[in-house]
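#struct-pred

JT: dropping the chains for the assembly here, can someone run the whole complex?
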Amino acid sequence: MDAHAHEHPNSSPPVAGLLAQFASPEALRAAAAAVRAAGWTRWDVHSPFPIHGIDRAMGLRPSPLPWLVLGAAVVGVVLALAMQLWMNGIDYPLIISGKPLLSLPTSVPIMFELGVLLAAIAAFVGAIALGGLPLYGHPVFFSSRFSRASTDGFFIFLAADDQRFEPISAQALLRSAGAVSVETLQVDEASGRVPGGLYWILATAVVLALLPPVLVTWYRTGPKSNPRIHLIQDMDFQEKYRPQSASPLFADGRATRPTVPETIPQGRLQADEHLYTGKVAEQWVTTFPMQPTAAMMERGRERYGIFCTTCHGLVGEGGVSGITSARAVKRREPNWVLPLSLHTQSVREQPVGQLFHTITHGVRTMPALGAQIPAEDRWAIVLYVRALQRSQNATLDDVPEPIRSQLRPVSP
Amino acid sequence: MTTLALMHDDNTANDPQRRAPLVIGPQTDETVTDSVCRVTEEVRTPRAWFVALVVSAALTAVFFGTIGYLITTGIGVLGNNRPVMWAFPIVNFVFWIGIGHAGTLISAILFLFRQQWRTAINRSAEAMTIFAVICALIFPGIHMGRIWVAYWMAPYPNQMALWPNFRSPLMWDVFAVNTYFLVSAMFWYLGMIPDLATLRDRATSRLRHSIYGLLALGWNGSARQWQVYERAYLLLAALATPLVVSVHSVVSTDFAVAQLPGWHTTIFPPYFVAGAIFSGFAMVVTLMVPARAYFGLKHLVTLRHLDNVNKIMLATSCIVAYSYAIELFIAWYSGHSHERFVHLNRAFGPYAWTYWLMVACNVLLPQLFWLKRCRTTPWIMFLIALAVNVGMWLERFVIIVVSLSRDYLPANWAMYYPTLIDVLMLLGSFGLFFTLFLLFCRYLPMVAIWEVKHVLPREEVNHGRTRA
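RK: done, full complex below.
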């Protein structure tokens, strides 16, 4: 064997190191202590099972893995708590069984699970990464004897890049430590290196795998003029008949059933023009069909709160004051038209009959609510809308004389 | 590497003077490696294994066929109907998830307690866990009806701007079961890496060498690798240990948090966990008795191992029996008429036969394990284990279906009958389970080779830890 082979790569392949086999775990441990005592740093011990006390014999420092795992567990617990409190308590407050919005006890199971999961992932990935895996090639694999290392062989490998490496003395060290055999391992350039193509394949795979999420994110953020694509269309296409569609069930082939001639469905006899249409002789009425009372005003306030506030807001100022409108704007709904303020000049000047008509049949982008609200209630709402309008455009004359003196000027 | 030789093949005797050996015969590192690897290296396909695989693969096909039918046709193909909206799929789910618990108990808790006999069975028990959890995960998915929106359970930002309801035990369940699956899978694979390297190093064909080489990640058994590896193994065991008790506890809250009489009780978590471990150990016996005989592993998975497993089964059977008794006691002691009725209905109502069969299988039959002969005779324990499998499935049926079928409102009562699809799905899930297990036996190291070597009796007292 050429002692300086590794300095002359042209003559023979350079030396990667020495591989020595030992007879038993005890011999191996003793030899490891000897190699360590000789001051080696680039070397390792290989065995088919973990040998107790070998780390101490080799002087290995304890691995940082437990700290990693602890860190991951803490992150998991905190993350789970934050996620649940934010999602169910803050971003979309969800009241379930009267529990508080920020409820700790119900968060515990998932905090525990996520803590365990992240800790386990840290232990798993940590074991692989800190163990230097995946390992594509290593000089020891070129020894035919080394295949015993996973069955019953005990080995020490001294790497040639250790500064103490000198083949003859290294051999002597191993033999005196009790090696059964010592083998010189050559660097095999061809099969030791990861093929370059592999990196390209991996890189392409990563880029391709990232494309879909990037596309989805790009498409989902920012305003869009069309409704967003959503995968599950169960709600869009339901098995049902739409108005005016065809049906083989009936002789006339129509899904929409016409009313029986000469009949009026129960509750549809709306003879009182003033009460049901808000018009008399094609003219908007300016009076209420019934005598307005405090009870009717109260009823109107309540119904307005149920049917109108979601869009027009509590005071009727429109814009984003109603929660439906605020949410639509937050979601950047492309087709959302802001509800009008009920205090605009044009609306204030409308006769009550027209307001009634707006509620009944909707207007432009506002939906018709006549089907949901009985006519009497619609008039009550109109009454309340009038009161709201007055409240927002009041003058001193609107305040009863006796309490005018209690008014204080406020800065605008 | 010579070891203690035994006079005969029985290591079940309890001689206080001498610790019973964990392996039988003169075993060395080489013979252990050989007997485990041989199973995967045999070129000729073993006949009985092949027949079993064909049968279970056919059942697997039935499983996925019925799932396809369910998805394309609708949930009405199952027998679920008001008031029994949770029926076979949920019974099967709880059954399979319970099976898994024995694997985790063996690999994690027994590891922490330094029960060295676990080394011969932990690998296959962990495999059993993973395959059982796979079967379990399928059922809640398909019983939802619209399986294609299963991903709605994940908390991801969506166009509905909605989040899952984390106050629901069903959501806890999603996290618990998926965590369980992932942790078990990682634990299993990590434990297998050194043995995959063994298979790689023994490979004679290029194909085997590359496949096992890829799976072994280049493991070369260096002390630096072993050091971090053992640490990680210990940590994973410590992390998996609370899962043994938590997963089935969370599953039990699916029921216990509901207001239904028969479900709304605080003993459910411990009761479910004991039942899970009980059923899991029964499955271990069901799998290991034939496998150790067929694949020639009787000297590694010895009668002593099975004896120990049977003792655990006996203990958990007694806990389960106690739970049944306490359940009845609480029903009576609560003074709650519906609670009392539900339990009388279980024992004497239209489904009474399921209740008494369950008691026979889970409480009476396992008492035979008090006899040593029954604990150490493979065919007897195999039969008892089969009965326990049946009994534990029935237990979930009694809890879920029988309670639902007669709740508060008598006007709402109705009998539940499974459809053919229900039955085929249950059989099919067994097909999937056995297919995966058979493939595992033939292509992966069935026994943790490095761990067995670690506890092999050695002539020299080589280090501080007690051996054998």
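JT: nice. Residues 1-8, 460-468 of chain B have pLDDT under 50 and may be disordered. The longest helix of chain B spans residues 169-202.
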